[in-house]
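Q: I'm writing a short methods note and want an example of a predicted protein-small molecule complex. Could you take the sequence and the SMILES for guanosine-5'-diphosphate and return the bound structure as tokens? Please keep the output block clean; save any remarks for afterwards.
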Amino acid sequence: MKGRVMRSTGSWYDVLMEDGVKLRCRIRGKIRLEGIKETNPVAVGDYVDVEPESNEGIITSILPRTNYIVRQSVKKTGHAHVIAANIDQAMVVATMVMPRTSAGFIDRFLVAAESFRIPQVIVFNKKDLLDNESQRHQNNLIQIYKPLGVTCIVTSALENLQPEIEKLLHGKTTLIAGHSGVGKSTLINKLSPAINQKVSEVSDFTKKGTHTTTFAEMFRLDETTFIIDTPGIKEFGLIDMTPEELSDYFPEMRDLRLTCKFGSRCLHINEPKCAIKEAVARETIARSRYESYLSILTGEDTRK
Ligand SMILES: Nc1nc2c(ncn2[C@@H]2O[C@H](COP(=O)(O)OP(=O)(O)O)[C@@H](O)[C@H]2O)c(=O)[nH]1
Ligand SMILES: [Mg+2]
Ligand SMILES: [Zn+2]
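A: Understood, no commentary inside the block.
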């Protein structure tokens, strides 16, 4: 029997079977996938073969993935933790206030998704809280991201759900990410009140040290529509990427980079006749995007 992994705790997996029944499953023996070193063999979103065993199940194999998104394992360096698999689009919920989502965070998310060829959406939430300054900042960001092919939606999860959001999600599997407190759970509950995700108090998410490790979880909105909530996941990993490759995942740099004097070997730091640096100087590439590029490249967060 075939099913799809909705939730994983590491040793147990909730699998939604083709007949609509949710089955608690375990893995038998070792399931190894080619190409990646990962700490968890089965991820949320995976399609799996299951052998039912009384009222539980055994996952016997994973069907080939169309894609997957990882984060670096905190336990084992060089290993990746697969957050989710078989994703149609990646949505980051961002807020300009309470809390402020940095451009660096958005860019890391977009680059990770782009490296897996997953289309991207930014939901700018809490529009009801914008003052003039944060409104201007948000408009600037939209002007940067829209031309890159990123779908941008402005909303308030406290108000009625925008049909635009439902339409965007319909028939797809969407990974939803964003800092704690931006309104992911509020939005998900609006999409389907039956999901009933816990919404944090406004005061909660500003407190430091309330770090609970939580797992990604997939919800079904209808037969063909799934959303994956990734609470507590701060950073998405970029594995198996050479420094020279990074600018390939910045759509505004992708073609231009080949016109650098050193062509595809240019890292766009301080090489002579670098087309990327020239474009930043001319402001045809946004400075914030270039700063994100450098920060990912060097592994240092140069901004705070
Ligand atoms: N003013 C305002 N508050 C919101 C909005 N969306 C969510 N919130 C509040 O922000 C807080 C955090 O929301 P939550 O959904 O738990 O965020 P999550 O950590 O991303 O899941 C809660 O108090 C929500 O009521 C919004 O659009 N406007
Ligand atoms: Mg939440
Ligand atoms: Zn260059």
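A: Remarks, as requested: The CA atoms of residues 248 and 255 lie 8 Å apart. The first strand starts at residue 2 and ends at 8.
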